[in-house]
Amino acid sequence: MLDLLYKRRSIRKFKNLRVEKEKINEIIEGTLLSPSGRNKKPWHFVVVTNKEIIKKLAESKNTGAQLVEEAPLVIVVFGDKNATTWIEDTSIALTYMHLLATNLDLGSCWVQLRDRVTKDEKSTNEYVKKLLDIKEDNLEVEAMIAIGYADEEKPKRTKDDLLFDKVKYID
Ligand SMILES: Cc1cc2nc3c(=O)[nH]c(=O)nc-3n(C[C@H](O)[C@H](O)[C@H](O)COP(=O)(O)O)c2cc1C
């Protein structure tokens, strides 16, 4: 487990290679195993491999989303606002996806979307829901994750990167 955690980095450049269906299925299967408050599972995932839609997703917020443009796979994560812990639950699911992708030798990057706006100041939530044809009022976008074969090298973290001084022990 620690090896995987040291290896996981945010990858923002992707090769022009599709992600195999079996790998997509494994990411989804693993993600659906993530825990949620009162086991409510208040998530909704949209798995996008359509290049035109992915290009539009890259425009879903004013900064920090452009990297998804060349990704072969983007999974957009919505949460049910009626569930008290929807932000935590969707974030755990995104963390699982990030780690599942790393474990399959895929690069990935989390792109936060909740409460953001597009370049022309439109709500990111409304933009993404319209683009993906999500009609349910209770669903709100949390983030998306770009996934693909890495076209950049990022070194593994080392123990020297870790902020052990952030931890207090009480025995
Ligand atoms: C909640 C969250 C939101 C993030 N949002 C973005 C984003 O919108 N755009 C982006 O390029 N990276 C985003 N990232 C990636 C972080 O910048 C990255 O995890 C951080 O710099 C540490 O680098 P590492 O993932 O390689 O360890 C996000 C990460 C998290 C956990």
How would you characterize this protein structure?
The protein is α+β, with helices and mostly antiparallel strands. It has a single domain (about 1-150), classed as NADH Oxidase. The chain is about 30% helix and about 20% strand. The protein has 5 helices and 4 strands; from the N terminus they run H-H-E-H-E-H-E-H-E. Strands 1-2-4-3 form a 4-stranded antiparallel beta sheet, with helices on both faces. It starts with a helix and ends in a 23-residue tail after the last strand. The model has no long low-confidence stretch (mean pLDDT about 100). Bound molecules: flavin mononucleotide. The site of flavin mononucleotide has 9 residues, from strand 3.
Secondary-structure map:
Elements: H1 2-7, H2 21-31, E1 43-48, H3 51-57, E2 73-80, H4 86-103, E3 107-112, H5 124-132, E4 139-148
Antiparallel strand pairs: 1-2, 2-4, 3-4
Helix pairs in contact: 2-4
The structure holds flavin mononucleotide.
Care to give the gist of this entry?
This protein has 171 residues and is an alpha+beta fold. The protein has one domain: 3-Layer(aba) Sandwich (NADH Oxidase).
Q: What are the salient characteristics of this protein?
A:
four-stranded antiparallel β-sheet, alpha+beta, binds flavin mononucleotide, globular, single chain, NADH Oxidase, 171 residues, 30% helix
According to CATH, what is the topology?
NADH Oxidase
Shape: globular
Biggest sheet strand line-up: 1-2-4-3
Strands, total number: 4
User: Which range best describes the helical content: under 10%, 10-25%, 25-40%, 40-55%, 55-70% or over 70%?
Assistant: 25-40%
How many domains comprise the coordinates? Answer: 1
In the CATH scheme, the class would be Alpha Beta
Bound molecules: flavin mononucleotide
What is the averaged pLDDT score? 98
- Given helix and strand content, the structural type is alpha+beta
Per DSSP, the total helix count is 5
Query: pLDDT under 50 segments (min length 5)?
Result: none
Largest sheet data? 4 strands, antiparallel
The share of residues in extended strands comes to: 15-25%
How far apart, in Å, are the first and last alpha carbons? 26 Å
Please provide the ordered H/E string of secondary-structure elements.
HHEHEHEHE
